[in-house]
Structures are given as structure tokens and as C-alpha cells.
Amino acid sequence: MKIFDLSIDSLIRLALAEDIGSGDKTTGLLVDGHALGRARVIAKEDLVAAGFVPFERVFTFLSAAVACRFLKDEGSVVLKGEPLAELEGPFATLLTGERTALNFLQHLCGIATLTRQYVEKIKPYKAVLLDTRKTTPGWRVLEKEAVRCGGGTNHRMGLFDALLIKENHIAACGGIRPAVAKARSQLSPLLSVEVEVRNFDELQDALAAGPDVIMLDNMTLKDMEKAVAITAGRVPLEASGNVTLDTIADIAATGVDFVSCGAITHSAGAVDVSMLIERI
Using only C-alpha atoms, what is the Rg of the chain? Predict the structure, then answer.
């Protein structure tokens, strides 16, 4: 999937318009328009690299004369003090685009870095870390790409590319079995069907209905272990709810196939990255 479609270009334009407005007054008054500059982007803490494309796109939107060279690969670990990128171009452009570009880079590296921490916790187990739809509005494609850079796996992109039948859908259809049957009767075979269960009665209904995945919603560790035993590999199981860095290893140890976590996108902090510019 190409992550930088027109919606991402629109997001970059919006971010630049928000910051620049009618013009960069400080740079316009103080910096010679013909001056050239060289910049280095430095990690101020250990991080996992992500967000290179929107970072570069900010500057190329402002001037085709900016050249950007990345010194690390996305998904790689960058240690404190190491450079991520070098740029050359009009000094004024580098100054004007600096904050917007760093906003993209710092946030997306933050998601990749936090995701990697979760992935490391479950390495001894078969469980795969999934993201969720709990993303910043307008940023979903970028944030899910950052999850992949961190070693996580994307769940559905939105409401359009997979079915997740949750408790309110089940209530509207009168039960799990009729909900899954109705979905199957009208659904393209290219789309998967997942159903949420909260207890063992619902688990048995789900197993009888035959979805592609069953989500165990906010179950205790003991109940998850029992659900794994009952299911016996017939349908992949996804654990959801109360997933933190402190709990994810214990959840994975129950034998579930997937663990979904909203925190890797909605609660990731920005990493510390700086951009130092000098005149050529």
C-alpha cells in the first residue's frame, strides 16, 4: 500500500498553512533569500525511526531546491546523539519548514518507538501485536505506517476493509449467530469477519457461527487461557482491552494469536529530535 496519497498531501498542506499563515515573518525579515543552508537532524534520545516521507515532503512542498538525505532506515534503532538526516537548500526554506517537519517526525518516531517496546515484550510468544482505529483524525495512514516501522501489524484501516461485529451490532441483529450469518450472506469473500465476545456463552455462539477471528473483549488472564483451550486452534483469537507494557507479556502467554492495543497510537509521546542549521 502506498501511504502517501492525496489525503496525506492535503494533511501536509494543512499543517504548513496552519504554521506559516500569511508568511514566516521572522525568517522573511532576517534571512537573505539567496542564502543557502545545511541542516542535520539529531536524535536527542534513543528511538525507532519512522516518518521520513512526510518530513521530507514538508520541505519539497516549500521548495524543490531542498535536498534531503536520510542516514538511517525506517524501522532502525537510532541512538541518542546519532544523526537521522542531512538537508541542503535555501536557508529560509529550512527555517520555515523546520517545526512542521519535526512535528511529523517526532510524533511518528514516538509511535514506532513505543510499538517496538510492546513487540519486544511478546517476542517469546506467538502472539502478534495489532494496532486499532484509535488514531489521530487525519493521521491514520501515517500512524499505522509508523506502527509497522516499530514491528507491529495493522488491524483494519477503517470501517470499510473488514467487519468487526461488536456488542451493539450483535444486539441489533438479535445475537452472534444471526449477525455473522447476515454478514456472510451479503459480504464479499475478500473481507474478513471478526466477532467480539465477552464470556464463554458468547464464545460458543461465535465458534458455531464460524467467523474468521474471535476477539476476547476485556477477559481476565484465566478466562483467556480457558478460551484458548476451548477454541483449540479452530479460530484465531485476539485479546483486547487493558493492554499495557506491564500486562502484554502475560496476555500473550495465554496462547492468544493476536493482541490489539490502542495505546501504541493514541498514547505515544513525541520523541526528542532537533534540527541544527548552518549557513553554507
Answer: 23
Predicted TM-score (pTM) of the model is 0.95
Q: How far apart are CA 120 and CA 127, in angstroms?
A: 11
Q: What beta strand segments (E) does the chain contain? A: 36-43, 47-48, 67-70, 77-78, 83-90, 128-130, 163-165, 193-197, 213-217, 237-240, 258-260, 273-279
Contact 176, 170 (CB under 8 A): yes
For residue 216, report the phi and psi dihedrals to the nearest 5 degrees.
Answer: -90, 105
Assess whether 132 and 196 both reside in one domain: yes
Per-residue model confidence as pLDDT tens digits over 140-168 = 999 999 999 999 999 999 999 999 999 99
Active site residues: 99, 134, 166, 196, 217
The answer on 171 and 81 residing in a single domain is no
Asked whether residue 62 falls in the same domain as residue 166, the answer is no
- Which backbone phi and psi does 189 adopt, to 5 degrees? -65, -10
